[in-house]
Design brief:
Order of helices and strands: HEEHHEHEHEHHEHEHEEH
Organism: Streptomyces sp. R21
CATH class: Alpha Beta
CATH topology: TIM Barrel
Strand content: 5-15%
Distance between the termini: 27 Å
Signal peptide: 1-28
Active site: 161 (proton donor), 312 (proton acceptor)
Radius of gyration: 18 Å
Family: Belongs to the glycosyl hydrolase family 6.
Pfam families: Glyco_hydro_6
Length: 337
């Protein structure tokens, strides 16, 4: 089972990054207008030190609903718009995008959440296939991200599914050694920065057992990283994700971890084909809001790595992976507690 689907739309990310660079948008202690009529409020830094993007897809949807007089729907989508979510760095302008997001976050006295998802031979030809052309291109891309971040605070989720796909052998054997090298190099490069935390992705509670992935994590540089991420773009409960993470942590030097809680409010869907229950499943809900107050010493944060409301792929009537799907977003929000 694949844990990651639906990276943010590259074009929209690039536009957002450029806008941030030009306008210096920030979301501080009060309300900030995103220019389209939607106001989003930054969460208290004491519980949630991560930056809320005032120009994200959800904020734009709030503005559209307000304009159309759909106030109830606007308030539902505000549940998404006013939470920090991962900013997925695109392939074309990594330095500019990383700089734009981290500068905006720094102005708000927050940390940006950046998701790096550009490994060569990405996603085993599934809905989010693609990635850098080769190893050299990937190294240059990572260098660009690092230059863009600089000394500003950032929390990086590194390559969802990249290690999992080594374990389940869907990444061709001839590319596996290179992938380990590229991941370890990326961890080292990013950890050389002053204020960057790095979490290597480590799958989810439903795909297998920690015994299968702890050695690949070690080979990919987990010892240099701050820890690992679990449940990215998936739906497993926080309870199950904590149990999985703790079993894995015990095998990799008690490393800390973060959990993607963006859409796990109702747990995993089991009513469809087993190999598609991760892809735009019905009846799901937003999970715990992003916070560093997890009440567990090993769990550094609950994060919304996957941006709720963006499609997992062209399944169950959805648009392409990463594209905003207003109806699905509204259902997630309405189903949440």
């Amino acid at each position: 089972m694949y844990g990651k689907r639906g990276a943010g739309t590259w074009a929209s990310v690039a536009v957002a990054g450029a806008a941030l660079l030009l306008a210096g948008c920030s979301s501080g202690g009060g309300d900030d207008d995103d220019g389209a009529g939607a106001k989003v409020t930054q969460q208290p830094r004491s519980s949630d030190p991560f930056w809320v993007n005032p120009s994200g897809n959800a904020a734009e949807q709030v503005a559209r609903y307000v304009k159309d007089g759909q106030k109830d729907d606007a308030e539902q989508i505000r549940k998404i718009a006013e939470q920090p979510t991962g900013e997925w760095i695109g392939p074309e302008n990594p330095e500019a995008e990383a700089r734009g997001f981290t500068e905006a976050a720094e102005k708000a006295n927050r940390s940006a959440i950046l998701v790096l998802y550009n490994i060569p031979h990405r996603d085993c030809g599934q809905f989010s296939q693609g990635g850098a052309a080769d190893g050299d291109a990937y190294k240059a891309w990572i260098d660009g991200v690092a230059q863009g971040i600089g000394d500003r605070p950032a929390t990086v989720i590194l390559e969802p599914d990249a290690i999992l796909h080594l374990v389940n052998q869907c990444t061709p054997a001839e590319f596996q050694e290179e992938r380990y090298f590229l991941l370890k190099n990326a961890v080292g490069k990013l950890k050389s920065l002053k204020n960057t935390k790095v979490y290597l992705d480590a799958g989810n509670a439903g795909w297998g057992h920690p015994d299968q992935i702890f050695q690949p994590l070690q080979q990919a540089g987990i010892d240099q990283a701050d820890g690992f991420s679990v449940n990215v773009s998936n739906f497993y409960s926080t309870k199950d994700s904590i149990a999985y993470g703790k079993q894995l942590s015990a095998k990799v030097g008690n490393k800390h971890f973060v959990i993607d809680t963006s859409r796990n409010g109702n747990g995993p869907y089991t009513g469809g084909k087993a190999d598609e229950n991760w892809c735009n499943p019905p009846g799901r809900a937003l999970g715990e809001e992003p916070t560093t107050r997890t009440d567990d010493a090993l769990v550094d944060a609950y994060l919304w790595v996957k941006r709720p409301g963006e499609s997992d792929g062209t399944c169950k009537g959805g648009p392409k992976a990463g594209q905003w799907w207003a109806d699905y977003a509204l259902k997630l929000a309405k189903s949440s507690k």
